[in-house]
Amino acid sequence: MPLDRGAAGHVLAAYGDQSGSNRKMVLAQGYYVSLGERDPEVAAAAVPLIDGQGKLRGALSVSAIRMRFDTQAQKMALKALKSEARALAGLLPASEA
Questions:
Q1: How confident is the model at residue 96 (pLDDT cuts 50, 70, 90)?
Q2: Parallel, antiparallel, or unpaired for β 42-50 and 56-65?
Q3: Residue 95 and residue 55 in contact, taking contact as beta carbons nearer than 8 Å
Q4: CA 29 vs CA 21, 33, 92: distances in Å
Q5: Phi and psi of 58, rounded to 5°?
Q6: Across the beta sheet with 32-35, what order do the strands follow?
Q7: In this predicted model, what pLDDT tens digit does every residue of 22-47 receive, in sequence order?
Q8: How far apart are CA 54 and CA 50, in angstroms?
Q9: What are phi and psi of 40, to 5 degrees?
Q10: More confident residue, 6 or 95
Q11: pTM score, whole prediction
Q12: Cα(96)–Cα(94) distance, integer angstroms
């Protein structure tokens, strides 16, 4: 799947040093919410998974039916994703140079 669509794709592209129209926004806010980018009925939110050395290790995301992923659901999802990303970052081995 191309990285120019979808929540996880935008996060991976932005933190992976790929250029893109949303890169600055994603880096500034630390997440991306996608509403119908890959499928008009689906929404998603994603955050980066950064290790203790500051290296991108992946993205955590959650998806939902678009009509149920309102602002409140987005806030709840992002809070949970950020919390889990912090917890996982502490468990990851150090990056290789």
A1: low
A2: antiparallel
A3: yes
A4: 14, 11, 23
A5: 160, -165
A6: 32-35, 42-50, 56-65
A7: 899 999 999 999 999 999 999 999 99
A8: 6
A9: -60, -20
A10: 6
A11: 0.89
A12: 6
